[in-house]
Specification:
By secondary structure, the protein is α/β, with parallel strands linked by helices. It has two domains: 50 residues, 2,3-Dihydroxybiphenyl 1,2-Dioxygenase, domain 1 (Roll); 52 residues, 2,3-Dihydroxybiphenyl 1,2-Dioxygenase, domain 1 (Roll). The chain is 17% helix and 32% strand. The protein contains two helices and seven strands, in the order βαβββαβββ. It has a four-stranded mixed β-sheet with strand order 4-7-6-5, with helices on one face. A three-stranded mixed β-sheet has the order 1-3-2.
């Protein structure tokens, strides 16, 4: 019945700061086709018909303590062509990360709003 992944949505309380992470660190480009909505935000294409959406809204979980390791929290897993390139970008930006505890070529980090992201190296 499910035939694909369309998008993941993350709430941000500071769109400028979030955009800096998603655009400058992760290298994503905004999709100009996002319609006007009752709140500000941005869409990023990550693959054909797959997106990340940011919504500028109050965080309904403000104050909740998230697990230190993103693999023990809700997260979205994204594939990357080079884990080493991502590690260099994260380190240059001062963003902490942890390697996958399973031994896979993967890492976890958090965006500026504490949303957990997993990045898996695609060796295909």
């Amino acid at each position: 019945m499910i035939n694909g992944f369309h998008h993941a949505t993350f709430i941000t309380c500071n769109l400028t700061r979030a955009r800096d992470f998603y655009e400058c660190v992760l290298g994503l480009y905004p999709d100009s086709s996002r319609p006007n909505m009752s709140f500000d935000g941005v869409w990023y294409d990550i693959a054909p018909r797959q997106q990340i959406h940011l919504m500028l809204l109050p965080n309904p979980e403000e104050g909740v303590v998230r697990p230190a390791h993103g693999g023990r929290d809700r997260h979205v897993a994204l594939s990357v062509s080079s884990l080493m390139t991502l590690i260099q970008k994260l380190e240059q930006a001062g963003i902490s990360y942890s390697l996958s505890q399973s031994g896979r070529r993967a890492l976890f980090c958090r965006d500026p709003d504490e949303n957990a992201l997993e990045f898996i190296e695609d060796v295909a």
